[in-house]
Every structure is written in structure tokens, then in C-alpha cells.
Amino acid sequence: MTSAEQPPPYAATGTDSSAPPAPALKKIRISHLQQLKDNGGRFAMLTAYDQYAAGIFDEAGIEVLLVGDSAANNVMGHATTLPITMDEMIVFARSVTAGASHALVVCDLPFGSYEVSPAQAVESSVRLMKEGLVHAVKMEGGRHYVEHVRALTAAGIPVMAHVGFTPQAEHALGGYKVQGRGEAGAAVVRDAVALADAGAFCVLMEMVPADVAAEVDAAVSVPTIGIGAGNATTGQVLVWQDMAGLRGGKQPRFVKAFADLRTELSRAAKAYADEVRSGSFPGPEHSF
After folding, report:
1. Any known ligand binding at 250?
2. Which residues make up the binding site for Mg(2+) (predicted)?
3. Between 224 and which of 51, 91, 109, 233 could a Cys-Cys bridge form, CB atoms 3.0 to 4.6 Å apart?
4. Per-residue pLDDT reduced to its tens digit, 183-214
5. CA–CA gap between residue 287 and residue 21 (Å, rounded)
6. Burial letters 30-47, b for 16+ CB under 10 A, else e
7. Is 270 marked as a binding-site residue?
8. Catalytic site positions
9. Which pTM value belongs to this model?
């Protein structure tokens, strides 16, 4: 078969009873992502912060789950990702790894846990892997963190690099803005190449022009992931609440809602409240 016809390293469970049973889901490894890059394939990545979402996405065949510091915004209600702590990230990580059996689980290094030195990055990452049971870490930043990546990979810790718009640096960047426009695109490419050469197994690009992301994907041998970076990357990632239509208000341009959970959850809550108030719930069938 041609490279485009290569099967993925997993097979999602089918629902058609007339079809032959689908192969069981397999454990996703870094090597599987690299195979997809080498063979022209693609993979999906979603954030997850709890066991139920992790389990659903895992069963759906999502290859990579990200325990994002975006939990600060999407779970804890903070305005930015900056306040979340290492201890809090470990709690979210343990919740996700408890629910996922097949996906590769990657966890963000939160703000303040790696910037001081490569040694600090290693110490923090060891905690995420030993206490959070994750399989890899993600670190924001460009070429300045090459030595951090080298130290982590030397310690046996897989590193996903994150370039372009880096939310932890939003105050330095002047807010949520596309990075790498015009001549600045060359700097994004240099950052990605330097981090991949230092040992990063994957490069995530956030809010960069699609042509710059395509240039990065061509310049590095490792898989790339995009969010607001066009479709030339090996993988794509979204915050799961955005993907499922749970969050209200104006959405970023790069978000596509594949469901309307906000409306459905609101409908269910109102129906529950109505039945409680009317006395129809719980009924005899719900009582002992």
C-alpha cells in the first residue's frame, strides 16, 4: 500500500453490528506519531482535565491528550493560564491518566516551573511524570530554551515544544495576537528547528500564519501540531470545551464546535429542575 494508505496505530471501535469487529485500541507512543509524520498521516489532540472526558476521548481514538495549563481558564475560572500551580497540574494530570488507557498523555509545565534553569525544568518534569503519571511534558518558548530541552531529553523525559503565540507570555506579547507575520515568520521557523534539533519529539504552533506553519512542518523531521496554524501540520489540537461547544461567548477564529453541549447541558439541567419542583422526580422507579 502507499504511504497515504498506511493504517493508523489504533482503530476506533465501530458501531455497525454488521461490520467485522474493529481491532482493539493500542497504546499510542511517540514512535507512532513519528510514523504518521513520515507516512503523511495525521493525528488528533484534545485537552482533558478529568477522568470522564479523558476516557471518552480515549475510546474515540484521540491519539494525544493534553493536560493543559488552560485548566486555569477552562476549569478554575482564571483570566489567564498564569495562576495555576504545579500541585494543581499534578491533580489534573492524575485525573486524566486515570481515565486514559490508550492515548499519549502530555502535560504542560506551568508558568514558573521551568524558566529559571534546565535543572528546574527537569525537577518539575520529574514530578509531573512520577506524581501525575504523564508520558511527556510540553514547554512554551523558543530558542532560549534549547538547553532546557536537551536536559530534559537527557533525563529521559519526552518534550513537546510550543512556539508562536505562547499564552504564558501573553503580557510580554501584548495580548492574544498572531505571531510570525511577515519577516517575523523566520524567527518562528528558527525557534522550531532549534528545539527539534535539541531533542523535542514534536513542535506545537499556536496562532501563526498557515504558510509559516507549513514552512516549519517542512523544516523539521518531527511531527508538528497546529492550533490556529492552518492544516499543513501533522496534528491538530483544540481545547475540548471549545471543540464540543460548551463555552459561551465569542470564539477564536480557529475554533470549530463539533457539538452544542452548552445548549444540551442547559436543557438537561432545566428539565431536572422542573421535575424536582413538580415532584415527578424521583419517581417510584428511582426509590428504594
Report:
1. no
2. 69, 108, 140
3. 233
4. 999 999 999 999 999 999 999 999 999 999 99
5. 39
6. bebbbbbbeeebebbbbb
7. no
8. 206
9. 0.91
DSSP state of 139: E
Q: One-letter amino acid identity for 278?
A: S
pLDDT the model gives residue 25:
78
> What number of other Cβ atoms are within 10 A of residue 288's Cβ?
3
Q: Check whether 191 is labelled as a binding-site residue.
A: no
Please say if the pLDDT value at position 11 is more than 50: no
Burial of 287 (0-12, 13-18, 19+ CB in 10 A): exposed
Dump the DSSP string for 160-224: EEEEES-GGGHHHHTSS-----GGGHHHHHHHHHHHHHHT-SEEEEES--HHHHHHHHHH-SS-E
For each of the domains in the chain, give its residue range(s) and CATH number, in order of start: 30-244 (3.20.20.60)
Distance, CA of 130 to CA of 125 (rounded, Å): 9
Structure confidence by residue, pLDDT tens digits, 82-126: 999 999 999 999 999 999 999 999 999 999 999 999 999 999 999
Q: Does residue 61 come out as left (phi exceeding 0), alpha (psi in the -120 to 50 range) or beta?
A: left
